[in-house]
Design goal:
Shape: globular
CATH topology of the largest domain: Metallo-beta-lactamase, Chain A
CATH architecture of the largest domain: 4-Layer Sandwich
Number of strands: 15
Distance between the termini: 52 Å
Number of helices: 10
Order of helices and strands: EEEEHEHHEHHEEEEEHHEEHHHEE
CATH superfamily of the largest domain: Ribonuclease Z/Hydroxyacylglutathione hydrolase-like
Number of domains: 2
Radius of gyration: 19 Å
């Protein structure tokens, strides 16, 4: 479903994520995230039916539900692809994504289409600030935390496509654990979003947000709750990373398969790093491994 947000900016709901569209002119558009590969042809067909051509793809980050259709759309339209320098590495080398989750050659179930998108061709690195892409002036805003180089995209209509830097209540209800790689950066990104600089806000799993501050506060609360859950656990006894992951899964009754387990693993690992950096916990080195305990 296509929804008009403001001016020449629209959002397009797909089964995997909400994408952004900015009309450069009556025939050409920028596509903000391409969505999952499985729905790439549907996205192309729909945009063509509107009489538009994708001139460029801008990705908020390198996860499969955001960049999976890059290759198909670029091959059909000749569109250039743009992303942050960090995300470019993963988009061009998507086999690295399950490596980062598993910390080694990943088992086959972790190399599924929800984790590993088709490789994106020739991604051009962009950086925070104002850029002109195919004649359209857009602004890139650093929203790191969910992934290393996550960026928001602000259109000339002051619509900010914030990718996965925020979750809707519905998305959180489905998997009630924030997925983060860097807690400090994610908290800073939430503060950036709270300070505004946009008139409209659209997120990938929730679409257009009519009360941004309430959603931002809710996301901050979810992340702080995860931090507190881990900290409270190790105040009682020393626990290994694996024990903490199991505790978080049990407390939140998380659905578990290979993909979901390692997403929870990554988030708990990010919280452990954050608490170690802030000297709230310490590591105990033992002959059989490492445990963590509150100071």
């Amino acid at each position: 479903m296509l929804k008009h947000i403001a001016g020449k900016t629209f959002c397009l709901d797909t089964p995997a994520a909400t994408l952004g569209i900015y009309l450069i002119d009556e025939n050409n558009c920028l596509l903000i995230d391409s969505g999952e590969a499985a729905y790439g042809q549907q996205v192309l067909t729909f945009i063509k039916e509107q009489g538009w051509r994708v001139s460029a793809i801008i990705n908020t980050h390198a996860h499969a539900d955001h960049c999976g259709a890059n290759r198909l759309i670029a091959e059909v339209t000749g569109a250039g692809i743009y992303a942050s320098a960090s995300e470019k590495i993963f988009m061009e080398n998507p086999w690295l994504i399950p490596y980062t989750l598993f910390s080694a050659h990943p088992p086959r179930p972790l190399t599924n289409r929800f984790i590993v998108p088709p490789a994106s061709p020739d991604v051009e690195a962009v950086f925070p600030g104002s850029w002109v892409i195919e004649g359209a002036s857009v602004q890139f805003i650093s929203l790191n935390g969910h992934s290393p180089g996550h960026m928001g995209v602000l259109t000339p209509d002051r619509v900010l496509f914030a990718g996965d830097s925020l979750l809707s209540s519905q998305a959180y209800h489905t998997f009630p654990c924030p997925v983060v790689t860097d807690v400090r950066s994610q908290l800073a990104s939430l503060q950036t979003l709270a300070e505004g600089g946009y008139d409209y806000l659209c997120i990938a799993h929730g679409g257009w947000i009519d009360q941004p501050l309430a959603v931002i506060d809710q996301n901050r609360e979810w992340l702080l709750r995860l931090i507190n859950d881990v900290l409270m656990a190790v105040q009682k006894q020393a626990m290994s990373r694996e024990q903490l992951v199991h505790l978080v899964i049990e407390q939140r009754k998380l659905p578990v398969n290979t993909t979901q387990y390692y997403l929870a693993w990554a988030s708990v690992s990010a919280v452990i790093s954050y608490l170690l950096d802030h000297r709230s916990i310490k590591a105990n080195y033992q002959p059989t491994g490492i445990t963590y305990i509150a100071k």
